[in-house]
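TICKET #2291
ISSUE: user wants both folds in one file
ATTACHMENT 1:
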Amino acid sequence: MSHLVPATPELNLEANSQSDHTPERSATSTPAAANPAKRPMYYEFKPEETVKAQHGNQLRCKTWEAEAALRMLENNLDPAVSLVYDELIVYGGAGRAARNWKEYQTIVRTLKNLAPDETMLVQSGKAVGVIRTWAHAPRVLIANSNLVPAWSTQEYFDELDKLGLMMYGQMTAGSWIYIATQGILQGTYETFAAVADKHFSGTLAGTITVTAGLGGMSGAQPLAVTMNDGVCLVIEPIDARVKQKVREGYVDEQARDLDHALELCAQYKAERKGWSVGLTGNAATVLPELLQRSFRPEIVTDQTSAHDLMDYIPEGNIDEVLQLRQQHPEEFKRQALASIMKHCQAIIDMQAAGSIALDYGNNLRGQAEKGGLQVRDERAQFLYPGFVPAYIRPLFCEGKGPFRWAALSGDPQDILRIDRALLETFPDNKMLARWIEKAQAKVPFIGLPARVCWLGYGEREKFGLVINDLVARGEVSAPIVIGRDHLDCGSVASPNRETEGMLDGSDAVADWPLLNALANTASGADWVSIHNGGGVGIGNSTHAGMVIVATGTPEKAERLRRVLTTDPGMGVFRHADAGYELAQQVAEERGVKIPGRE
């Protein structure tokens, strides 16, 4: 392994040319198309039957907590949910649920045999140990993609990955709490609602948003825009993905070509109708063309996969481009970076022409900057802001974030019953009521039925106990998995996204997500994870995940109280410490204990 050690840490840090979220490996799920690196996948261990989450009340494991972890792992890999099933890629370009099929089988076998007082340790998608702990301790502890900081570069990670020694866990792929595109949908909906409130008198009706990418995460954007009554033109280079999102209901209509797309957008804008139009094309080509035509959308953003240059599709014939990735990866990356720079420059130019521009967290700006494009002003601030500092940070100060739950029964009626309980528990939350109404009408259940909802400090604990009570009374037919995205108020350090532009300059301080994982473990979560790089690429973020299972027991109710108070409380701690007055007020009003402020 000596060839992997960088001559100097500085060289590898300079060489890091990757950063961000993801368009996705390929329209096909064949191993060759999905994985030009040919990492060892052990296909001989691939299950004969397609992996899908088991439904119902029959346990294969010794506890519901271990069973829940197994079902959520299976759900991540369900071909209806995952991006490239053969490669165990869930979303985010290369975000895997397990390192390879051999290690998947070992994880499954270990979960089935795990005693009620044992904990499985998972290192980058591989079960590496079982330890005796306590019945109230986590059943699974996961660490994905973590490298010593000076070695935390895409190139060094890629070498380890090719050797089968690590895997990229993204955010919720390797922590087994992915719930398909819905997982990011409400946060995207909240963001566009905040854009509407700030710039367009509370509605996107009569506006056009231009964006790009129709992967597992980016596919949320067109639906989020239309849920706020706006028109969305979304550009995606792989035609099969456009068609898939139309089938799923995330995109309303596919345009024949750019002229047709603009005709449709103009029509629906004039009608003030919420509608989305998918266009097969490359944003690096289409956005400059829009500028040449003097077309100015009210809003421009992007969520193509740019964190790893191997995941950003450059300009050109799509078949030739995908072949280039297989045969000449370095040239592919060179062309990808050139296209990223064109794409990013077009967004900057649209902003100069009057559009509201925002980065949606795929690190497009960071990659363009590494390519030599000027993306910052004289104060070193990005020329167009990220969505968190521009629109979401006040929610983080209240401990709010993408709280989610999934029905282990597989029965959609369980989610609908919880929806009713949610509205009954928070009757005065009009935004929440609007979200549930629109989600029920427009969001398909893919894999295990699930729901996502932004709830804050105090609200998560309250509603977790409501869910547990529904399980206890048999009003839902099996235990409910409760978790969240790693993109949360106190679980991530990501200077180009969630922690961009922190008030006290602590953007890159990674102690907070590590404390989050430790605190959730101590409080009794059922599985906890720590990842590097999710959303923005290796070396660009540290983040932590948490899951707890509502089984209906009094003992679990007590753990729910602790975990669902501790977890959002980390967001209040983090933002109060950074000097945000709103977070300090929330702490004082809601009894959050902060040393020195008591």
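ATTACHMENT 2:
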Amino acid sequence: MNPMGTVEIDRAGGDAAELAARLIPDEELQPWSVEAVPSLPSFASKMRQCERLRGTPYSETPHDVQDALVLRRLQQMVNTMLLNPLWKERLAASDIGGPPATFEEWERIPLSDKTVQRDMFMGDRPGMVVPLSHGGFEVVASGGTSDGLPLEIVYSLRELHDTYRVAGHFMGTYQLREHLRGSDPKWLFTSLADYQMWSSGTMVGGVLQQVPGVNYIGAGPVTGPVFQHMFSYQGPKALMGISAGVAILSDLGAGLSREARESFRVALYGSGVLPHRKRAELRALYPNIAILSYFAATQAETIGLQLRDDSPVLSAVPGLHHIEIVDADGRAVAEGEEGELVVTRLHAHEAPLLRLKLGDRMIRRPALTGPGLKTRRFEFAGRTGDVLHLNDSQYSAALAYNALRDDLRKAAGVDLDEAAHEVQFVNHREYKTITLFASVDDAEGLTHTTAAALGPAGVQRVFAGALARSLSLFNDREATQAAVEKSGYGFRLVFVHRASPEIERTAVGKVPLVRDRG
């Protein structure tokens, strides 16, 4: 038997750490020069080798083996980064002079944010271990959909293509296979565009092209006639777009034949949350559709995938990123607790970036175990900026909306989930006023219904009560009715027509839940 064959590994490989050390041996664990880094075997090759030795797909490999290999890779990344003077200085400031022996030690590494990313990977790009002059890189950019400032990251092309294959195969196996059945051609479209610098359309398209057995079309933003032409193709179809792009598919498909509407099997949406109203409209038009989240970012092309239509839980792609849900000190939260999403790309020899905060909050959910897929799971809880600031107190906007929706349903018979296409809180700090804008079909009618049911002071009372039940992210003892009433804030609920300029949208059509003004 080959010395690296399955039989020997099964006997000796009960120790997951030993297996990880064999997959990434000591001579690869610590590259001694920058010149040696581009020659390091890819992490994807280690995943494939692990599959051969274990005789099972990497995504179905036991958690202890996955964890041991990931920790070994993180150790290799830290050793690599110590070859860069800026990273060495940054790590030394946190008393880190070598690789972490455990995940607990890993959590001592300082978190990175967009500022760190800009400083390290824009301009002269001093954070790259292997300089850009070496060649073989791709620069991926975002125009800044939240803060409006450009943001760039650099990837080795060989490793970027590895991640496309890993993520695409995972999507095909665990997310799309059950929906795209039969002998007819299978189609996978994306309506993402690259007009906001050169960001998501390229990266997500790279993943979708690697889904086995499908025909890929990078359509970009489509008009009704183009959409109807695409859906005239024979066979089951899936489409991925930003939330706003998926939301309009009920309008674009109004003239489709019944056969075409029945062929739409999966709508994949990015960027947070698809409103309840839009889900209902899509399901009414497309009877066989599953609506699933594809959670990604420019810095990490596939972070979490929703595998089941009846559960909002997201699953990580094993071996793609090391994903953490952490508290304010950068430590892992317990299962069921909410924290900040932190991502470390595992396929990054030449230009690694450790522990990057993407600006999202997640709830840590139990890992998926048992037969088949074994992976970490989490649930989207909102953007880090989805916070309502009332003086020195901070309230979760998502929880405030849920509480306000429930109270309005009881008090006025108005269901915001059913009525609203979009909602947005606007906080005028100077004037101490928070307004919830809701875009609806019948703005005048809903305004009259709400006013008649609640009276002149009713909105203020309902709003204050809802905020009192939306626990603060950091100081929940202040989230009381008395604290809200003493804040001096006035609250308004304003119904507006669809596409109203009162609701602020980003350059790519996203609707932030919270906007602060003045």
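RESOLUTION: both attachments delivered.
EXTRA DETAIL ON ATTACHMENT 2: Residues 1-13, 472-478 have pLDDT under 50 and may be disordered.
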